[in-house]
Amino acid sequence: MPAPLMGTITSLESLQEHLQWAIELEHSTIPPYLCALYSIEAGHNAAATEVLSSVMVEEMLHLTLAANLLNAVGGRPRLDIPEMLPGYPHSLPHGDRSFAISLFRFGPEAIEIFLKIEQPSPAGAPPEDDNYQTIAQFYDAIKQGFRDLSATLGETNVFCGDPARQVTDQHFYSGGGRIIAVHNLATALAALDEIVEQGEGANHVQVWDGDSDVFHPERDQVAHYYRFQELKLGRRYRRGDTPRSGPTGDPISIDWDAVLPMRTNPRTSDHLPDGPIRLAQEEFNRSYCDLLQLLEQAFNDAPQMLGATIGAMFTLKAQAQALMQMPTEDGLATAGPTFEYVAPNHRAVRPRSVNKSAG
Questions:
Q1: DSSP secondary-structure letter at 9?
Q2: CA angle 138, 144, 150 (to 5 degrees)
Q3: Residues of each domain in the chain carrying CATH 1.20.1260.10
Q4: Residue 204 carries which DSSP code?
Q5: Hey, is 177 helix, strand or coil?
Q6: Cβ 108 vs Cβ 232: under 8 Å
């Protein structure tokens, strides 16, 4: 008789479900990071811009790794679905509901939320497959699922996906870490370690994630949680620093006023249906959903299409920054991207006035 399973993921179908949740989890962090990044006025806050840019690129890596993991076990990544854009504020998908993620302009309030998202798990924290307190605990439950199912079903039966659907570095990636093609238990665990270590540090006890800093190759790269700590505390980590010591390196200068006053959690419903803000927000949403569709195609049928997302991201950046320059009707803030889902059949027709202004 086989030994009883240790974790709560006890079937291949459950593992596939949790890996789809991982895709939704990794994506849920991208809109908040984008809003904070694009709200920084050009030419200001270089350190914060580097942090947010690097973290956002690495979240795209984590999204890709989650898709590779799901493809490896015979699943089909879904991104062009309403669940990817449930509206803000909302909690981490299937996670702790004690706090909500919001769309903030760059500032102390945004950094506090980012620290909650990326917080390291406590020492000895148990795996949690649902209503998890930290992202690492969620991935620990998935790791246990991979181990259990590989032992009971055999690795060949678990890793039954088409290898041609795996995304690799050759398809496109230029950030910290690496894309790992998943085809057995060892590579699955390596991919999960890459996600967790970039978020909270190597071995759960270091501020470093094991990579070199993308913007400053002579430096060790700091994990996401500690990059946000650097911004909060106004000082860099240096070699020898630990989570307990905090950062003791060079000071970081931040101008909290050099930020566009984007309204928190903007919504299309806040504005007149035919007004310029509403039209621009709706166009952004169509463009963003087009990007989700492109990513879904890349992860499912054509990994070589991943490079095409670069142009789409530049379009989104221009649209978001244009929105953040548009004063709201009350004059108290500026507009911003709303990240609301648009069904595919509602994306085909672009309003002529928006296309003309965009060109």
A1: -
A2: 140
A3: 12-233
A4: G
A5: coil
A6: yes
Tokens of 82: 């309403």
The pair of three-digit structure tokens given for residue 248, joined into one six-digit string: 């003791």
Q: Any residues with CB less than 8 A from the CB of 286 and at least 6 apart, and which? A: 342, 346, 347, 350
What does the pLDDT profile of the chain (359 residues) look like in tens digits?
344 456 789 999 999 999 999 999 999 999 999 999 999 999 999 999 999 999 998 999 999 999 999 999 999 999 999 999 999 999 999 998 888 999 999 999 999 999 999 999 888 899 999 999 999 999 999 999 999 999 999 999 999 999 999 998 765 655 667 899 999 999 999 999 999 988 876 666 788 766 656 666 667 788 899 999 999 999 999 988 999 999 999 999 999 999 999 999 999 999 999 999 999 999 999 999 999 999 999 999 888 888 778 788 889 999 999 999 999 998 999 999 999 999 999 887 555 444 433 33
Strands annotated E in the chain? 208-212, 220-222
Cα end-to-end distance, the chain, whole Å = 67
* Token pair belonging to 294: 């492109």
Report the top-level CATH class of 12-233: mainly alpha
DSSP β-ladder status, 208-212 and 220-222: antiparallel
Paired tokens of 207 = 């501020």
Distance CA 339, CA 252 (A): 31
**At which residue do the structure tokens 């070589």 appear?**
304
As a whole number of angstroms, the distance between CA 319 and CA 106 comes to: 18
Q: In which residue are the tokens 């942090």 written?
A: 51
